[in-house]
């Protein structure tokens, strides 16, 4: 993982989640998105 913004996408290409990492550790709040790209949970 390393350092930076880590993102994954749904099979339709919209964002699934994003989180900041530093040296392989999570440093920020995980943001989850539905398959329409709408933020559903922090």
From TrEMBL:
It comes from the Bacteria. The lineage of its organism: Bacteria, Pseudomonadati, Bacteroidota, Flavobacteriia, Flavobacteriales. This is Uncharacterized protein. It comes from Flavobacterium gyeonganense.
């Amino acid at each position: 993982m390393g350092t930076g913004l880590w993102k994954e996408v749904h099979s339709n290409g919209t964002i699934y989640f994003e989180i900041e990492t530093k040296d392989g550790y999570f440093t920020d709040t995980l943001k989850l998105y539905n398959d329409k790209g709408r933020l559903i949970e922090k």
